[in-house]
From TrEMBL:
Keywords assigned: Thiamine pyrophosphate, Transferase
CDD domains noted in UniProt: TPP_BZL_OCoD_HPCL (cd02004), TPP_PYR_POX_like (cd07035)
Name used for this protein in its record: Acetolactate synthase
A Pfam family the protein falls into: TPP_enzyme_C
Superkingdom of origin: Bacteria
EC number: 2.2.1.6
An example molecular function term from Gene Ontology annotations: acetolactate synthase activity
UniProt KW Transferase keyword: yes
Family assignment from sequence similarity: Belongs to the TPP enzyme family.
InterPro entries per the UniProt record, alphabetical: DHS-like_NAD/FAD-binding_dom, THDP-binding, Thiamin_PyroP_enz_cen_dom, Thiamin_PyroP_enz_TPP-bd_dom, TPP_enz, TPP_enzyme_TPP-bd
Cofactor annotation: thiamine diphosphate
Amino acid sequence: MTERIEGHGGDLALAALRAHGVREMFTLSGGHVFPLYDAAHRAGFPLYDVRHEQSAVFAAEAVAKLQRRPGLAVLTAGPGVTNGVSGLTSAFFNASPVLVLGGRAPQFRWGSGSLQEMDHLPLVAPVTKHAETVFSADDIPRAVSAALTTALTPHRGPVFLDFPLEAVFSVGDADLPAVTPPAPIEPDPDEVAKAARLIAGASRPVVIAGSDVYAGDAVEALRAAAESLRVPVFTNGMGRGALPPEHPLAFAKARRVALKGADVVVVIGTPLDFRLSFGDFGDAQVVHVVDAPSQRAAHVQPAAAPAGDLRLILGAFADHAGDRADHADWIAELRTAEDAAKARDAEEMAAESDPIRPARIYGELRRALAPDAITIGDGGDFVSYAGRYLEPAQPGTWLDPGPYGCLGTGMGYAMGARVSHPDRQICVLMGDGAAGFSLMDVESLVRQKLPVVIVVGNNGIWGLEKHPMRAMYGYDVAADLQPGLRYDKVVEALGGAGETVEKAADLGPALGRAFDSGVPYLVNVLTDPADAYPRSSNLA
């Protein structure tokens, strides 16, 4: 039975949002969107506000990533929307189903110079799946419902709507559209069978699984396919933890050996971008498995490229009944390389060097983090170490900026993660450069009683720039920060707590205090500025 709804534009939008499972709003206060606040307040709908609009969008993206449902950010007109564009762009590259609702100057006097009058659509259209101005209150439920369906349809991604002032403040009525989940994309069975034959028949196959495996709820299907075909699995992005670290087919540290020796490389749910050598693996054949035809790589010619619902494709891999090569020797070779690398890493993570090396921080974090902790990377050089030394034990516990590489995600992601998982550890791993982008939003976390732990690797430089620039030119410029800066004092001034750590032996106790504090707590670790991640470069 169709439900008829009425009210001002905020009421009409909220009804459609709730029907699609949206459960919270992230925002920075602005008069153009007051009716959305009014609707939320009267309905008891959770509303979280921030100090910079980018944090609102990043918080919405964290919810979308972690919970596989739409995240919502509400931004006021003009600079409110433009401040959120980096967040929208990150969501676009990360295929995150985020809805941004923007205010807009009144249409009836458009062109007269109203406050914050700007046409947002030309700016946001290139980084959204859909962008639309909704000119009447009656049309708001239809537009919100359609936008959310688009956001959730693979390949997922952000959508944008803005409402002129008179539309969102006006009273209207409309039918609440029925919610129909997107239908799974059926892959071409011949292409799936071709891929399965290549994997099963390979002598040295390797799987690399990425974020879309988690987003598409295909973690169990990946495990079944890997176990059936006996293929070693590496992961990136939110694919991390898809196989627990103790799984006999889970690998993390032997990737270079694996890709150098593989004869078939199977990339699932992640693009063939700079993180994966642009899909160039020497003589190995490439199988690229994607969740929608639009995601097939155009710059390489894979040997097979199944496109569609990842659960269906991986399920078919698991059920493959054809001939299979024996991969036992290959798996054993990689396990030997993996174990050797783990032994080297263990030494580095236990180093008593002065000043502290980043590896030691991660050694202490491995002991402090619970298996279901959410770890968030916001930085360059310091966060590169996180990818090497931290091994998520469960899927859906890792958040990083993704291929767009935007700094400043930290506090927004932390807010979205805390809202999503109020009973888990939330730990932000932040470079001191990244701290300059969003640390003010600690105040938002404090005020709204959202405790998180922030670990800053403080080396006083832009590490990804300083070392490469010196190597290239013999000097560096614009790559130094204030050494020893007390970021913990910034957090204390904003109502949280923290401390600075200069000795490796003090790391463990400091992290213990941080996780027990119940408030936003920053552990400011002074690290060796000469220590650079060995493969760090933002020039790729």
